[in-house]
C-alpha cells in the first residue's frame, strides 16, 4: 500500500466511525492535541469535541 493509499484508508475509517456514530473511535484517528477552528463557531475544538459534533450532525434530522 502506498503512503497515499494508507492516508485515504485512515480518512475513510475516520469518516465511517464519525457516521456510525462512534465519537470515541473517530477521535482516535486524530492527534490528541489537534485544534480546528470552524467558521462561525468560537474557539478551537479538540479531537473528541470534533468527533462528537460530526456524529451529532450525522444523526440530526
Give a structural overview.
Helix content is 57%, strand content 0%. It is built from three helices and no strands.
Tally of individual domains: 1
Structural class: mainly alpha
DSSP strand content: under 5%
Helix content: 55-70%
Radius of gyration: 12 Å
Describe the global form. Answer: globular
Oligomer: single chain
Which keywords apply here?
single chain, 61 residues, mainly alpha, 0% strand, Membrane protein
Note the topology:
Blueprint: H1 3-19, H2 23-27, H3 47-59
In short, what is this structure?
It comes from Salmonella enterica I. The chain is an all-alpha fold and 61 residues long.
Amino acid at each position: 500500500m502506498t503512503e497515499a493509499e494508507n492516508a485515504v484508508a485512515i480518512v475513510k475509517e475516520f469518516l465511517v466511525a464519525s457516521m456510525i456514530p462512534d465519537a470515541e473511535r473517530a477521535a482516535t484517528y486524530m492527534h490528541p492535541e489537534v485544534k480546528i477552528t470552524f467558521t462561525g463557531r468560537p474557539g478551537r475544538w479538540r479531537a473528541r469535541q470534533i468527533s462528537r459534533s460530526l456524529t451529532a450532525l450525522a444523526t440530526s434530522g
